[in-house]
Design brief:
Elements lengths: L4 E9 L2 E6 L2 E7 L1 H11 L4 E5 L2 H4 L5 H8 L6 E4 L5 H10 L3 E4 L1 H5 L2 H10 L4 E10 L2 E6 L4 E6 H11 L3 E6 L11 H10 L4 E4 L5 H9 L5 E4 L1 H4 L5 H10 L7
Length: 251
């Protein structure tokens, strides 16, 4: 069985790592270069960097910061925010990214998924989906959770897979930053419907939540931010906790 992955996430705004609750009330959480270095040394399996306002502000991602973070990593590095064409992805690859994450641009131009997969390989393409539960339906949002779409989570995830996505990163806007646990039911459905890995995001607060997301939620990887940034859950302790409960993790 493949090892389950623990992935810290750097949500970056104006060059600083930030964290909010349900995509609002954003607060400073530290220097992304130092946090990235720390997570690499502590045994994180991957690192995700998301420029959370690039799409909303209609700009490209800051390549120099990506380059500075990548310089201190020895783990896979996924970068997202403001990627709308092949040239953007190529520039990030040159800056040190191992994978790219697309969200708003994928919804606006689904063909971009296919173009990226054909040019760089499916393993290079992560399609991130932000969705909110509304009237018993998971509705997809873009532009950092600002714009509601007509897309439904499960149908859009299946389409993204068919178009060439190598992984799906699903963030529940209802659970984000609440520390009450992941959207377990939705994750289990995604994992059953897709043949590509599913990364869970939104809601981690205790070690038990990671255990639950890998067992009941059937996720392949669990992403979290504030519990790692503020030292609430040390990565080595989390890995040992999961291993002691027969979850395959890389120690």
């Amino acid at each position: 069985m493949l090892a389950k992955r623990i992935i810290p996430c750097l949500d970056v705004k104006d060059g600083k790592t930030v964290k909010g609750v349900k995509f609002v009330n954003i607060q400073d959480a530290g220097d992304p270069v130092e946090l990235g270095r720390r997570y690499s040394e502590e045994g994180a399996d991957e690192l995700v960097y998301l420029d959370i306002t690039a799409s909303h502000e209609g700009r490209k991602l800051f390549h120099d910061l990506v380059r500075r973070i990548a310089r201190h990593l020895n783990i896979p590095f996924t970068v997202g925010g403001g990627i709308s064409e092949l040239a953007d992805a190529e520039a990030l690859l040159m800056a040190g990214a191992d994978k790219i994450s697309i969200n708003t641009s994928a919804v606006q131009n689904p063909g971009l998924i296919t173009s990226l997969a054909r040019n760089f390989g499916t393993q290079f393409v992560v399609v991130a989906i932000d969705a909110r539960m509304e009237n018993n339906q998971w509705i997809v949002y873009t532009h950092g959770g600002r714009n509601r779409t007509q897309k439904e989570l499960f149908a859009w995830a299946r389409e993204a897979q068919e178009r060439g996505a190598g992984e799906i990163l699903f963030t529940s806007m209802n659970h984000d930053g609440t520390k009450n646990g992941y959207a377990i039911d939705a994750l289990a459905i995604l994992s059953n419907q897709l043949s590509i890995p599913v990364i869970a995001s939104g809601g981690a607060g205790r070690m038990e939540h990671f255990l639950e997301v890998f067992t009941v939620g059937k996720a392949d990887a669990a992403l979290a931010a504030s519990v790692f940034h503020y030292g609430e859950i040390p990565l080595p302790d989390l890995k040992k906790y999961l291993a002691d409960r027969n979850i395959p993790v890389r120690l």
